[in-house]
Amino acid sequence: MRNTPEVEDLLRRNAPQVLGALVRRYGHFDAAEDAVQEALLAAAGQWPSAGLPGNPRGWLIKVASRRLTDALRSEEARRQREERAAALTPRDAFTAPPPGERAPREDDTLSLLFLCCHPDLTPPAQIALTLRAVGGLTTAEIARAYLVPEATMAQRISRAKQKVRGVRFGRPDRWEQRLPSVLQTLYLVFNEGYTATSGTALQRPDLAGEAIRLTRTVHRLLPDDCEAAGLLALMLLTDARRDARSGPHGELVPLDEQDRDHWDKAAIEEGVALVTQALSRGRPGPYQLRAAIAAVHDEAPSPEATDWAEILGLYDVLVGLVPGPVERLNRVVAVAMVHGPRAGLTELDALSGTLKGHRLDAVRGHLLERAGEPEAARTAYESAAAQTLSLPEQRYLLARAARLRV
């Protein structure tokens, strides 16, 4: 019988918790992940026809534990047959944990996220390992999302696993210092899903949706962390516009031209509530500020009603905390909307030596067009189009440039 969406969702939600339970009990990240994948395949083959077990997570842990210990025993037998039984007897013995040992719980998902975002890993490796181990995506799915060969992604994930081999499973002693890496990884996954950096598609909704799902998990496990709440709010408020960002042929529709009736009102309401509560607790962090900016956009009934002065004020605070090129470039747009395109161009010139890429020229083209310089704007749009690897963005920029031809 074909797998149902309910079964698929149940398997995906339980996969990181099952993997976390096995890694916590036995170690052996590589072997544990293989065993979990075998258990998921077994469940996908049995549950649709036989029905769900009373305790799906327990079923998966039991089956995966058996597969793992069989594999470990086989490996040990080749090396040290006489010590096999003593060396590889699982602490849980497939039943209840011994007195004093905590039972599997959802907190294992957070521990797994911390492991995948270990500081020894590069950001691309953190993203790949997170999507594989916590998100439950296959190597082929991750490779397709990032437009690299499956073999390349498999090597990246394999190297990441090797680097975290032997790392103690559980929350790090100073886990608060590791949390920003976890949130940054989820933020990067979402951004790639919301606006693909290359390829024929403007968006990859499955990738953005996975980032939202994982961020919900972090927020649920750390409900008092304002930045986790801020990141979830930012994702919801941004993703709420997804259906209005593309035209009937997949073309990019800019924010000021979107049909706001197609925005997801429920997501906006949830996002606004999250960021409002987070901001009320004290000094805001970068994700809360970004979410607040998104909320101002989403709550405006029309482009003309957008409170750009409030947005500029929020960007001033954000740039004070995170003076990165993207934040500063976005602030330039707010300056132009409040003080006029010439003021924005002056601010943009100050960024030219520190910021590279197509977005700088795209903003320059927009401001020059608003300032009444069509030829210069056309040149900037064409320069931006030549630099982007995203075909929808390229087509949009070239269309803007074509409108300005004399």
UniProtKB/TrEMBL annotation:
For this protein, what is any one GO molecular function term? sigma factor activity
InterPro entries per UniProt:
DUF6596, RNA_pol_sigma-70_dom, RNA_pol_sigma70_r2, RNA_pol_sigma70_r4_t2, RNA_pol_sigma_r2, RNA_pol_sigma_r3/r4-like, WH-like_DNA-bd_sf
Q: Tell me which residues make up the RNA polymerase sigma-70 region domain.
A: 10-76
Q: Where is the RNA polymerase sigma factor 70 region 4 type domain?
A: 113-163
Family stated for the protein in its record: Belongs to the sigma-70 factor family. ECF subfamily.
Q: Which protein is depicted?
A: RNA polymerase sigma factor (Sigma-70 family)
Q: Which UniProt keywords apply?
A: Sigma factor, Transcription, Transcription regulation
